[in-house]
Structure to design on (304 residues):
């Protein structure tokens, strides 16, 4: 099994590198996915190293050492399994879950599930939440970059969310070519069915099909982050938003003076931090993971 470098450092399994304030630790099971998402380091035809997921390195560790380190730490609030769709990943994940269930730490598993039955098997094993990635929220680009049918995927999310209320998270990547309007309408749609959205910023990875695709602007990302925060807290509804012709958010129908910094923190499952998953250290991060240092951006012709 693999751990994100930051998680391994946090648990003391690696002694070098900055020790970051993390509440969730991230594990990866499997490598070289059977699917071929155009943006993913683990995709079938990707030439990126099998140690990579997004821009993060995931060194290998023995399961026993990882479990002992989690037992020693009193600060782990959630364990997140990133499950790559490869032959043995599900069995390895189930084996791990079985061995950490007694620690009573909530477990999330981010998995590409294809049926409700598949989801049931994960919940029966003991995961608290399932992360079912959407990633690409534009219907045409979903098919192009991820493969499969967007509407069938959303309908699966609805069925699973009905069966397991408030236990589903989906991932959405900003900057795949969707408009801000499409992204925020998707977030509202998910909120209406009780699904939380973990926002990611597109990160070009060398060796993937989209290695030359640009990152989203920080202004776009902040506008979408704020939209997600307002929608998930029922402070605003996308039906009251105003958009430009190109789909840029111009107004939320909400007093901008009241925006809390929390709007710009990492989103998704409770306590998910994902430090530097999309961003280079030293630059203003897309997702703040401990505290917000600055988050100025533009909405319409206003700087906030
Ligand atoms: S939101 Fe965070 S904790 Fe939840 S599945 Fe995604 S990466 Fe894991």
């Amino acid at each position: 099994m693999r751990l994100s470098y930051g998680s391994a450092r946090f648990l003391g399994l690696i002694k070098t590198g900055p020790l970051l304030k993390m509440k969730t630790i991230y594990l990866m099971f499997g490598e070289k996915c059977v699917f071929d998402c155009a943006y993913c380091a683990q995709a079938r035809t990707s030439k990126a190293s099998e140690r990579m997921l997004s821009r993060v390195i995931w060194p290998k560790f023995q399961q026993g050492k990882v479990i002992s380190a989690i037992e020693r730490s009193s600060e782990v609030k959630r364990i997140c399994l990133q499950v790559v769709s490869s032959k043995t990943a599900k069995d390895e994940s189930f084996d791990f879950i079985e061995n950490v269930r007694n620690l009573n730490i909530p477990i999330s598993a981010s998995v590409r599930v294809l049926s409700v039955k598949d989801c049931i098997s994960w919940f029966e094993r003991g995961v608290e939440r399932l992360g079912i990635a959407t990633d690409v929220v534009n219907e045409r680009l979903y098919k192009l970059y991820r493969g499969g049918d967007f509407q069938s995927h959303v309908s699966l999310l609805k069925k699973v969310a009905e069966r397991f209320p408030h236990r589903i998270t989906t991932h959405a990547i900003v900057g795949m070519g969707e408009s801000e309007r499409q992204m925020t309408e998707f977030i509202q749609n998910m909120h209406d069915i009780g699904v939380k959205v973990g926002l990611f910023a597109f990160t070009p990875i060398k060796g993937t099909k989209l290695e030359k695709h640009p990152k989203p602007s920080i202004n776009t990302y902040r506008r979408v982050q704020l939209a997600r925060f307002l929608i998930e807290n029922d402070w605003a509804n996308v039906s009251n938003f105003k958009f430009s012709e190109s789909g840029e958010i111009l107004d939320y129908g909400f007093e901008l003076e009241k925006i809390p910094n929390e709007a710009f923190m990492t989103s998704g499952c409770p306590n998910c931090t994902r430090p530097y998953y999309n961003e280079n250290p030293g630059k203003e991060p897309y997702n703040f993971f401990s505290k917000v240092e600055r988050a100025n951006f533009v909405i319409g012709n206003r700087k906030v």
In short: Residues 24, 78, 80, 108, 110, 131, 169, 171, 198, 268-269, 272, 274 surround iron/sulfur cluster (CB under 6 Å).
